[in-house]
Amino acid sequence: SQTIHQWPATLVQPVGSPLSLECTVEGTSNPNLYWYRQAAGRGLQLLFYSVGIGQISSEVPQNLSASRPQDRQFILSSKKLLLSDSGFYLCAWSIGSTEAFFGQGTRLTVV
Amino acid sequence: AQSVAQPEDQVNVAEGNPLTVKCTYSVSGNPYLFWYVQYPNRGLQFLLKYITGDNLVKGSYGFEAEFNKSQTSFHLKKPSALVSDSALYFCAVRDKDTGRRALTFGSGTRLQVQP
Q: Which residues are within 8 A (CB) of A65 and not within 5 positions of it... i.e. 6 or more apart?
């Protein structure tokens, strides 16, 4: 069966520090991969999605970037974090027209 | 463009009573529709989906949803609420007729079931 791993679960980083959040999927090939951010426990904002290795689409201009170095690996990065980057980051995957499956999320606090 | 509206920030219901969480959508083509549930500090869990076929869709934990094309709605329902159903619920949509694969989510509705 398919599983998705997202780490770390929580992260506290100072302003101006770099960021790297990693997400990996097991049990499937060539998934669509997504990064969402959830602010204040409410709506989800799509940040990036990828339909294949090296193919990244950015939804919102911001301080973040994403990469997909392997088929089932999706990385969210920043060179210098801002206070406004704090939030709950969720990775997800899907195949075709099916539902998306989510990781457990990373709570990022920028201080 | 695709969008979802969940008009209620919170829904309160007594345990054992039926519950409804409302969702309306907007797509230029035909929709794929989804409901998810989120517990505190956790990822989203898939509940059910409408792809095609019967307008009444049954999902996990006794939940169901009815697709209404004329009203562009996909309300989540359960005949008898449990205290353990208390959580944050999200409706999501994807336009079947575009190449876009990402889901667009509503702002969420907090369901509070009182014992």
A: A48, A56, A58, A76, A77, A78
